[in-house]
Write a structure and sequence with these properties.
This protein has 361 residues and is of the alpha/beta class. It has 2 domains: 255 residues, Spore Coat Polysaccharide Biosynthesis Protein SpsA, Chain A; 94 residues, no CATH class. It has 12 helices and 14 strands. A 9-stranded mixed beta sheet has the order 3-4-7-6-5-8-12-10-13, sandwiched between helices. The chain has a 3-stranded mixed beta sheet with strand order 9-14-11. The radius of gyration is 21 Å and the shape is globular. The N and C termini lie far apart (61 Å). 37% of the residues are buried. This is Glycosyltransferase 2-like domain-containing protein.
Length: 361
């Protein structure tokens, strides 16, 4: 079997290879779900038209939903990790990659992957509508009884799917989440032992590493399509699942690594725009769930406002006054100090945006 090679453009020209095709070929015998592809069909889901492949109607154990947008390089590592997952012989799973209008080599990547591993399915949306709508479209197209949500920049440790499957087999009608470790390099996937102080999964429902029964997800109303900007769509769904009194289990064996690359200078402006959108969506979140818990989540309290005012030295530390210092720290590869300094600016931006949007509404 020859190596597969294709190229995509993300910050330049990249090439991806299935280098050890022999091991991949051997693992093909372990794939229990091998759908028969017949013809392309056109569908419309949540206002979007998309193309899929008709498969034989067969209910599976797990459907892994992976939304993505212009992340072909990271998606390669995500799919590689999911391909290494194993379930008991009587169980099977599929991976649905929802391309939310990408303009890079994402479709080519998934199509080439599908030729070797048919359980990886591509679902293309006509234009970008946010991760919430993309996940809803993936759920509608799914065949599994259990839905597992991961992001395209998340790398699952071997045994990840089995841990979620085992938890739901023992406790029907529950929600399971697992630890999420932040890494800034792919080679850092060595921190396998669970330590609560390094776990980044604090939310009731976090789409970086969560599993829920499909019937419960649909009953909850799925992701709210009103969240079309950055942030809070998964936590808002988590509040609805919490109100449904669904038991939540933390599965520490279901480990996932969330890739957070080292900062670059171009990330500074992007991060400020994300915080502005996070503040706007935070107000929308609170309008739907007017609880004190949500106010704490979105930093809509006078404690948070005073805290970030003091930490920013009453406004002296702002995006204009410290930007040159942060750029200098990034060039010196002092990413930790740069992140700490810029996080003060970002959090104050989020907090002030929440108060401003609430006042204007």
């Amino acid at each position: 079997m020859k190596d597969l090679f294709f190229q995509t453009s993300i910050h330049g020209l990249y090439g991806f290879r299935f280098r050890n095709c022999k091991s991949y070929k051997n693992r093909l015998s372990q794939i229990f779900f091998k759908p028969t592809f017949k013809k392309r069909l056109n569908y419309t889901v949540a206002g979007y038209s998309w193309n899929s492949l008709e498969i034989q109607p067969k209910e599976l154990s797990i459907s892994v939903i992976v939304p993505t947008y212009n992340r072909a390089e990271l998606l390669f590592h995500c799919l590689n990790a999911l391909d290494c997952q194993q379930l008991p012989p009587s169980e099977s799973f599929e991976v649905i990659v929802v391309d939310d209008g990408s303009t890079d080599g994402t479709p080519t990547l998934v199509q080439q992957w599908n030729k070797q591993f048919p359980r990886v399915r591509l679902l293309r949306l006509s234009h970008n509508g946010g991760p919430g709508r993309a996940r809803n479209a993936g759920v509608i197209a799914s065949l599994g009884r259990l839905l597992v949500f991961v992001d395209s920049d998340v790398i699952a440790k071997p045994g990840f799917l089995y841990a979620h499957w085992k938890r739901h087999r023992e406790s029907l009608g529950c929600l399971s989440v697992g630890p999420v470790y932040w890494i800034d390099h792919i080679s850092q996937q060595t921190r396998y032992r669970f330590r609560w102080w390094t776990d980044a999964s604090r939310a009731f429902f976090c789409t970086s590493n969560a599993a829920v029964g499909k019937h419960l997800f649909i009953k909850s109303g799925m992701f709210d399509a009103d969240f079309q900007k950055y942030g809070w769509e998964d936590l808002e769904l988590g509040e609805r699942l919490r109100n449904m009194k669904i038991p939540r289990y933390f599965v520490k064996q279901a480990i996932a690594f969330h890739f957070k690359p080292a900062w670059t200078i171009s990330d500074l402006e992007k991060s400020m725009e994300q915080e502005r959108q996070r503040g706007e969506m935070g107000v929308l979140f609170y309008k739907k769930h007017r609880t004190f818990r949500v106010r704490l989540m979105i930093q809509f309290t006078w404690f948070h406002r005073c805290l970030w005012l003091i930490l920013s030295l009453f406004g002296m530390i702002n995006e204009y006054s410290v930007k040159c210092w942060v750029i200098r720290l990034i060039r010196m590869k002092q990413y930790g100090i740069a992140h700490l300094l810029w996080s003060i600016v970002r959090n104050r931006k989020t907090c002030e945006t929440v108060f401003d949007c609430w006042k204007s509404s």
